[in-house]
Amino acid sequence: MNHPVNIQPVRVVRHLDGVVELRLDDPGRGNALDLATAEALRDATAEMAADPGGAVLLRAAGGTFCVGGDLRAFTGRGEGTGTYVHAVATAAHAAILALHELPVPVVTAVRGAAAGGGVGLALVGDIVLAARSARFRLAYTDVGLTPDCGASWFLPRLVGPRLAADLILTNRVLTGEDAERWGLVTRSVDDEELDLEAHRTAAGLAAGSGDALRAAKGLLRGRAGHGLGRHLAEEARQIAALADGREAQDRMASFLAARDRARAGDSRTRPREPESVS
């Protein structure tokens, strides 16, 4: 999918308080991951990893954190679908691994929808804050695919194998408050407080004992990053293999068609806004 001219879908913003912000910045597309966005995310995390400041804040512009893979970019490629999806997953996975292996604390702020790969991206944080109205949904099996972006690696470790299976196999929707109860996120906060609280949390960490925080994070991570790397490679292989199949391609196309019909119906029934109030 083509991006509007001059749009940078991912930005690195360095704050004076030592917080380095990684911002998904394509709200008009729900911060969806097509190849250009996944590569921008990979490149931005590589840039940030070279100088991560005292703490990293991962957040998104607009009302949606990340809707996951861009199905419109995935469909219509025929036999090339799997190759394209593998490229998207591989680029996104490089970003996930870089974030996971950062020596400094990572704070994630989730507003609106976190779906598909957006769930894995959200969960990579050490401290994850979610707006109470946030919505977490895996959604992969609805379109004939399997999880990527580390979701099937993070979830069993966070909530246990039974609850992880429930989320992945049934595509259950969790609010921010649900996600806190289930253990997906650190805590949920009022929607209007999310940005301030997330930055305050990251700034507090950046102002703390850098050596101690890095060492503590290293103890928490252990050698898990090596296991994640191998796991991410298998996730990319599996999702690409499924994306090449007829079932996934049909399901993705059907999903988009149903959404387009719903939007068309909504536009017909919504009262027309006045073009001018003067």
UniProtKB/TrEMBL annotation:
Residue ranges annotated as compositionally biased, kind Basic and acidic residues, are: 258-278
Q: Which Pfam families match?
A: ECH_1 (PF00378)
From the UniProt entry, list the residue stretches annotated as the region Disordered.
256-278
InterPro entries from the UniProt entry: ClpP/crotonase-like_dom_sf (IPR029045), Enoyl-CoA_hydra/iso (IPR001753)
Q: What is this protein called?
A: Enoyl-CoA hydratase
Organism of provenance: Streptomyces graminofaciens
